[in-house]
């Protein structure tokens, strides 16, 4: 169970807890941030993503790290950004089934979402949700 | 100053590239194997490495993976004759900056600098205090 921290979810459009997840975190419109305290959702905010450049995988890593994110939920991710997130201390969780943000966030807080493993990384376009 | 590690079976493949960077503050070191490259990267600070697809002791792809496990911040470039689509398929999850031809030259030097500057510009815009509350 997640007691406290900031969850980031790559999101489509305006994001938000009732929004939908983006399939490729590097190309998402916004990141939905969910702040958790004492195992409860305390605050929801959004952050605009940055332009994506080939090989610029560390831009979102640094963006989320600078914004105190502690956990990220993805549908798919390449090896380089996964290693980058791990190396800056951001745990990366995986769900490639559900498009909605809220249920996967609640699952993560409840401890029902698995961390992505190195053999689940994808090459290229990211995973599908 | 940018410090670049060149990894190839023959040093001559980088001759034109090194010459193209002669007037720019870039220093190069060269080695001919992945094992040597990993050793050098563990001892010295490099900003970027450029590798061939086939090395005497492994593949360029394998070298990139090994380096990423230690330092995902390390940028890479690969010398490859693959088509654009095949290269994309083979390497994109590894966050390779660029594909170079088997013998890179002046054009690639210019393209690499432009690309590094573009990423630096994007990165300079990323630090923001907090998300917008909704």
Structural summary, described in words:
- The complex is a heterodimer of chains A (129) and B (134).
- Chain A contains three helices and five strands; from the N terminus they run βββαβαβα.
- Chain A has a single domain, classed as Nucleotidyltransferase, domain 5.
- Chain A has helices at residues 58-66, 79-87, 101-110, and strands at 5-11, 30-37, 40-48, 71-74, 91-94.
- Chain A has a five-stranded mixed sheet, sandwiched between helices.
- In chain A, α1 (58-66) packs parallel to α2 (79-87).
- Residues 124-128 of chain A have low confidence and may be disordered.
- With 129 residues, chain A is an alpha/beta fold.
- In chain A, β4, α2 (79-87) and β5 (91-94) form a beta-alpha-beta unit.
- The two termini of chain A are 23 Å apart.
- In chain B, α1 links the parallel β1 (2-7) and β2 (26-31).
- The N and C termini of chain B lie far apart (43 Å).
- In chain B, strands 2-1-3-4-5 form a five-stranded parallel sheet.
- Chain B has 134 residues and is an alpha/beta fold.
- Chain B has helices at residues 15-20, 34-43, 60-70, 84-91, 106-124, and strands at residues 2-7, 26-31, 48-52, 75-79, 98-100, 132-133.
- Chain B has one domain (2-124): Rossmann fold (3-Layer(aba) Sandwich), CATH 3.40.50.2300.
- The A-B interface holds A 14-16, 31, 33, 43-47, 50-51, 53-59, 61-63, 66-67, 78-81, 83-84, 86-87, 121-125 and B 65, 68-69, 71-73, 75-76, 88-98, 115, 118-119, 122-123, 125-134.
- β3 (40-48) of chain A pairs antiparallel with β6 of chain B, so a sheet runs across the interface.
Keywords summarizing the entry:
heterodimer, A: 129 residues, alpha/beta, Nucleotidyltransferase, domain 5, five-stranded mixed beta sheet, 22% helix, disordered C terminus, B: 134 residues, Rossmann fold, 5 helices
Short description:
Chain A contains three helices and five strands.
Strand-helix topology:
The complex is a heterodimer of chains A (129) and B (134).
Chain A: E1 5-11, E2 30-37, E3 40-48, H1 58-66, E4 71-74, H2 79-87, E5 91-94, H3 101-110
Chain B: E1 2-7, H1 15-20, E2 26-31, H2 34-43, E3 48-52, H3 60-70, E4 75-79, H4 84-91, E5 98-100, H5 106-124, E6 132-133
Parallel strand pairs in B: 1-2, 1-3, 3-4, 4-5
């Amino acid at each position: 169970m997640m007691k406290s921290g900031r969850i980031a979810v790559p999101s489509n459009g305006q994001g938000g807890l009732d929004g939908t997840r983006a399939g490729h975190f590097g190309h998402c419109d916004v990141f939905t941030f969910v702040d958790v305290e004492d195992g409860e959702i305390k605050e929801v905010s959004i952050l605009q993503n940055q332009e994506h450049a080939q090989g610029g995988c560390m831009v979102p890593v640094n963006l989320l790290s600078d914004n105190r994110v502690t956990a990220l939920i993805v549908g798919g991710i390449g090896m380089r950004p996964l290693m980058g997130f791990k190396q800056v201390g951001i745990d990366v969780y995986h769900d490639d089934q559900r498009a909605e943000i809220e249920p996967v966030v609640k699952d993560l807080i409840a401890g029902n979402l698995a961390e992505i493993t190195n053999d689940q990384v994808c090459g290229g376009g990211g995973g599908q949700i | 100053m940018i410090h670049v590690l060149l990894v190839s079976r023959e040093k001559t493949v980088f001759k034109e590239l090194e010459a193209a960077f002669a007037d720019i503050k870039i220093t190069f070191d060269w080695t001919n194997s992945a094992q040597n490259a990993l050793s050098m990267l563990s001892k010295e600070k490099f900003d970027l490495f450029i590798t061939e697809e086939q090395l005497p002791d492994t593949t360029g792809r394998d070298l990139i993976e090994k380096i990423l496990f230690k330092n995902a911040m390390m940028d890479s470039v690969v010398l490859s004759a693959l088509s654009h689509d095949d290269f994309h398929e083979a390497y994109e999850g590894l966050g390779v900056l660029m594909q170079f031809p088997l013998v890179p030259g002046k054009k690639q030097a210019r393209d690499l600098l432009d690309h590094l500057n573009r990423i630096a510009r994007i990165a300079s815009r990323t630090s923001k205090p907090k998300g917008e509350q909704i």
